[in-house]
Amino acid sequence: MDLKTAAQIAASAMSAQRLRLNLISSNLANAHTTRTSEGGPYKRKDAIFIPQSIEDDGQSNAFMDYFKNEVAKGVKVARIQETPDYKMVYDPYHPDANPEGYVVMPNINVVEEMVDLLSTSRSYEANVQAVRTLKAMAEEALKIG
User: Fold this and answer.
1) 133 is in which domain, residue-wise?
2) Does 103 fall in a domain?
3) Which of 15, 30, 34, 47 is 20 to 30 A from residue 7's alpha carbon, by CA?
4) Is 56 part of a structural domain of the chain?
5) What are the φ and ψ backbone dihedral angles of 101, each rounded to 5 degrees?
6) What distance in Å separates the CA atoms of residue 135 and residue 129, rounded to the nearest whole number?
7) What span, in angstroms and rounded, lies between the C-alpha atoms of 115 and 20?
8) What's the pLDDT tens digit per position in 51-77?
């Protein structure tokens, strides 16, 4: 695997994690939103990742053939999934309460979202460190020549 391929893998992961971070932020910001432009409460959003393969560059050797066939070459977002789960909360003074006093709220667990936020942040940082290491390796290789 060359440095360019490794950088592409890290970049794809950073891009995917950035999108996931934006979705988590949106979920946290709308944890108590009972009205949206589509109607009804906010729906929790989550990114679904799938492995990504790198296009064949025309060069062939046993080492690269092994990796092209066996190992993922990055990640991409397959889709953004909305979770339409809701919870009923008793709050008779809320403007969106039904006649029984219950409000339909998004089923967003703030603690779970914060854990996902930390996990996403750490994953992004790990990929940033990988890019820094690649840069240092390239600089050292230039010093050899």
Assistant:
1) 3-33+40-84+110-139
2) no
3) 47
4) yes
5) 95, 10
6) 10
7) 13
8) 876 454 445 555 455 555 555 578 889
145, two tokens = 């020549």
Number of H helices, E strands in the chain: 3, 4
Residue 46 identity: D
Whether 65 maps to a domain, the answer reads: yes
Tokens representing 58? 């025309």
The predicted model gives 73-101 an average pLDDT of: 91
Q: How many CB atoms lie within 10 A of CB 53?
A: 12
Q: 90 in a domain, yes or no?
A: no
Domain count, the chain: 1
Mean predicted confidence (pLDDT) in 44-48: 94
Radius of gyration of the chain (CA): 22
Within a 13 Å sphere around the CA of 47, how many CA atoms are in the beta-carbon half?
21
The encoded tokens of residue 36 equal: 């949206």
The pLDDT value recorded for residue 4 is 82
